[in-house]
């Protein structure tokens, strides 16, 4: 449930503003994912079916990334025919997959470069589009942003999806006059009044470290 506060220690509210949203705290999943270490993930609800995807926070990216179902399919020979099969093990190890074609609210934008990781030689292209993204699993019902940018991963260079925390917009064209930049997920959370600012805090947790209070807080001093 959205809550507001009139007490903001250390800050002064703008004239005419009587209250602001309280910082949003997002609990981590009760599990660990990753092929370069076992890291705490956070759940997102994607598309019209609210498909759950477990992702890692990214401070470099402004986008939502999720593993496309095609990233966990493979060709299996059945006598003279090639049969496409789905790997349940892949699905689980990659934080569960998202099928854009099964979402009635998906708007495709085509394939674009997955630029995050390019400095490390991790180059690939993702199937991009716009769709609804909510924070937390069904039942937790964190806020939802409609028609936001999602890059879906098919290539295995990027194994797990991510939750981009950077406020910068996404450009799908060099001609920004004809195709304006798309606001980031964090910006849209702020614009719709779900968070009080674009600041965030993140405590990273891995399986082999005992950190009792891993969490993600969106907006507020020392706080997604």
Give a description of the structure:
This protein has 224 residues and is mainly β. The protein has two helices and 16 strands. A six-stranded mixed β-barrel has the order 6-7-14-8-13-12. It has a three-stranded antiparallel sheet with strand order 3-16-15, with no helix packed on it. A two-stranded antiparallel sheet has the order 1-2.
Count of distinct strands: 16
What is the overall pLDDT average? 86
Largest sheet: 6 strands, mixed, barrel
Sheet-strand content, in percent, reads 25-35%
Structural class: mainly beta
Instruction: Give, in order, the helices and strands.
Output: EEEEEEEEEEHEEEEHEE
Q: In angstroms, what is the radius of gyration?
A: 19 Å
Walk across the major sheet and give the strand order: 6-7-14-8-13-12
Percent helix among the residues?
A: under 10%
Please work out how many helical segments DSSP would assign: 2
Shape: globular
For the termini, the CA-CA separation is 16 Å
Uncertain stretches of 5 or more adjacent residues:
none
Tags for this entry?
224 residues, mainly beta, 6-stranded mixed beta barrel, 3-stranded antiparallel β-sheet, 16 strands, globular
Describe the secondary-structure layout:
Layout: E1 4-5, E2 20-21, E3 24-26, E4 32-33, E5 39-40, E6 42-46, E7 51-58, E8 64-67, E9 73-78, E10 81-86, H1 88-93, E11 107-113, E12 125-135, E13 144-153, E14 162-164, H2 185-191, E15 200-202, E16 216-218
Parallel strand pairs: 7-14, 8-13
Antiparallel strand pairs: 1-2, 3-16, 4-5, 6-7, 6-12, 8-14, 9-10, 11-12, 12-13, 15-16
């Amino acid at each position: 449930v959205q809550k507001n506060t009139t007490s903001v220690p250390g800050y002064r509210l703008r004239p005419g503003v009587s209250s602001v949203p309280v910082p949003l705290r997002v609990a981590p999943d009760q599990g660990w994912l990753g092929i370069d270490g076992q890291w705490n993930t956070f759940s997102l609800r994607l598309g019209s079916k609210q498909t759950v995807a477990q992702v890692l926070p990214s401070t470099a990216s402004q986008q939502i990334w999720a593993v496309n179902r095609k990233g966990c399919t493979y060709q299996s020979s059945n006598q003279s025919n090639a049969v496409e099969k789905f790997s349940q093990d892949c699905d689980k190890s990659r934080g569960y997959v998202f099928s854009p074609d099964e979402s009635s609210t998906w708007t495709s934008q085509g394939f674009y470069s997955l630029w995050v990781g390019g400095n490390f030689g991790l180059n690939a292209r993702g199937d991009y589009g716009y769709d609804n993204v909510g924070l937390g699993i069904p039942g937790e019902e964190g806020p939802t942003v409609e028609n936001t940018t999602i890059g879906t991963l098919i290539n295995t260079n990027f194994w797990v999806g991510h939750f981009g925390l950077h406020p910068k917009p996404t450009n799908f064209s060099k001609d920004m006059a004809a195709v304006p930049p798309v606001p980031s997920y964090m910006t849209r959370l702020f614009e719709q009044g779900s968070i009080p600012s674009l600041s965030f805090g993140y405590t990273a947790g891995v399986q082999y470290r005992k950190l009792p209070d891993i969490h993600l807080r969106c907006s507020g001093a020392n706080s997604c």
